[in-house]
Amino acid sequence: MLVLTRRTGESVRIGDEVTVTVLDIRGDVVRVGIQAPRSVAVHRDEVYRELRKANEQAARSVDEGAALLTDALRKRGQGPVPGPARPATEAVPTQSEAPVATPGPVPSPSPIPSPGPVPSPSPDPSPRPAPSPSPSPSPVPTPPRPGPPTRNPAPRPPGS
After folding, report:
1. What's the number of domains the chain is made of?
2. pLDDT tens digits, 60-78
């Protein structure tokens, strides 16, 4: 156990997310404030003991209830009582029990439709004009090739 001395207003850090601060001291009673994320359960010790005791009693009553129910089902003769899984033994069918397959017609494969134009749902059967060709896009300039840098000569005056 780590024992520390703190005065009013001083704190103790526990990990990165929990801070315990001494708020007030009156005689032999110390008030502390605890700052912690919601995921950290913080209880007074006497409350924590009561919670554990209640949880243990609830678990025991569930076990006792399950045992009573199991006994009642056994007494009624309702068949097998659910319990731990047992490995199943597979029965191999004998020759007389084995199902016999009778030959039947073999279905013929249906043809796969070829991809093509999808008919329009329009009730107008008139042919549509062919789409006009779109203008060809302008060529994208290519970046210069890597290599040694080129020097641009100084501009000359016209007529020289």
Report:
1. 2
2. 777 777 777 787 777 777 5
